Amino acid sequence: MRVIIEPTYEKLSQWAADYVVNKINAANPTPEKPFVLGLPTGSSPIGMYKALVAACKEGRVSFKNVVTFNMDEYVGLPEEHPESYHSFMATNLFNHIDCPKENVHILNGNAEDLEAECANYEKMIAEAGGIDLFIGGIGPDGHIAFNEPGSSLSGRTRIKTLTTDTRVANSRFFGGNPDNVPATALTVGPGTVMAAKEVLILCNGHNKARALQAAIEGPVTQMWTISVLQMHEHGIIVCDEAACESITHGTYKYFKDIEKDNL
Domains of the chain by range and CATH? Predict the structure, then answer.
């Protein structure tokens, strides 16, 4: 696992965006062999999305031959709802880049058969050749996507019940009332994320400090689903200084030292 420590959220976001741009450009994708990108929602990736939009508008990267799969979506929330992840992705990324609409895949939380929707999502990922780079965030309780504490680390795309903590955390987007946050969601599983060729996790802020510590220094456990990243051959966490307050000084120094020539 690589751990990149940046001084601020802004620099974290730019590092992540530059990494994505470089990966797409290095792959030189074509319609026959697109670059397959897994994408998150939430507050953590907003800065990265802004930087990716800027890179696209400046001509430094094109998304014409990029296929995307989002991590999750609420169940029962209309796609046009301002807090649906369909709306989030359109507002923060897809409305501003040249990625064809037919290349964008987001789970349908209003599907008649939710289990079939999840199974088909896994099938589409496989038919696309698997995900080249999966980007994600970390919840304060260490969850990745909507895989709450206690989730199977080998689980695939499925229906998940959201914890009270997650609904409270997300209530800031729903008028401050946790009861307004949908109780269930469709989400890729840790197994889906781990099957990607590379995984890049964004982690910022003091409220993520315990989760970062668990991800880096703790055991691999279903109670901190992000800890499964320790088992990935090409896992990266890019974080800011604020998120590092719970890791030991030795761990902090170690990652700063081995990455100093790569920054």
Answer: 2-259 (3.40.50.1360)
